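I have been asked to look over a protein record a colleague put together. This is what I was given:
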Amino acid sequence: MREILILAGEASGDMHGAALAEQLHALRPELTLAGTGGDRMAAAGVHLIARHPGVIGFIEPLRHIPAHWRLQRSIRTRLNSGAVALVVLIDYGYFNLRVGADAKAAGVPVLYYITPQVWASRAGRLKRMAQVITKAAVILPFEEALLRKHGIDATFVGSPLLDRAINMPGKSEARARLGIPASGEVLALFPGSRAQEILRHLDDFLAVAAELERRRPGLRVFMSVAPTVEIPAERVPYPLVRAPSFDLLRAADVALCKSGTTTLEAAVAGCPCAIVYRTSAITYAIAKRVVKIPFIGLLNIVAGRRVAPEFVQGEFEPVRVAEALNVLFDPSSPERATMIAGLDEVRRKLGAPGAAARVAQMASGMVP
């Protein structure tokens, strides 16, 4: 029996791969699913040929090169065996574009779900993408036209976040789920889903929270912990929450978010936020030269303007961030009202629920 090979490289890819696998099992139960990912994909019925550690940046992936080479060789052998009917690549362009080239050479069609962010940097990848991608399923509204302009058969399928938001709780229900009192102000902290992000962000996230506690007596603070990381409880004087991000965002009045998917989750949840990010000095120096967009937060990128304040690298100063967040707690402040309107605009631009089902239909159509 031929298989679909689904390759995800990090926590978010594992989540999206699991949702896709569930839809594929329902649509084509006769197909075998294998791939790289984590616990969610495994639970969704994907036979994991490897657990794939995700790394980001320009310098950080270098130490993983030997492991990536070994995994790529193993996947290349699988592709050349004739057992693979389709490769689905999920994000993680650093590794997946090389696998895509191997699939192309082996005559295996490639469906790329959540394509590399070439609109931000490394636009030279577009030529390579056009050479190896059979079809692309993109999740941001402006990506379809960009990729089609460069010869890639791309379709906007909507943001997969909207599937998770279908049963998003209201504020009172979210607080009840998390054991948070119905009254009182709540700050949610989202320092990242990778160990390297926690290392660089944690202390300053805690400093922001402490400063806001000083300014807002009675403030309750909760920190989201991704399933892929461990944060020692003794390092954090606040409850650690492993519930879905939407639960905490809906329970909170304001959030502090590391740049990434969480900023879009905040938009969907309607939770005012500030966006921060810090990376290594070398990666940041390179990024300053190659990144071509004015924002780092996906929320602001989709909006096409600054909806949420951003604090990057040296600008990530706890007191400055606390000042930006402090005004957002006031329900009557024009800053909060303006941001909530901007978040709603972003939510509408993300399309309609059903991304995983639409990608499953695309994949099914590519497999005889």
Observations:
- Residues 166-349 form a domain with the Rossmann fold fold (CATH 3.40.50.2000).
- Residues 9 and 334 are 41 Å apart (CA to CA).
- The radius of gyration is 21 Å.
- The longest strand covers residues 84-90.
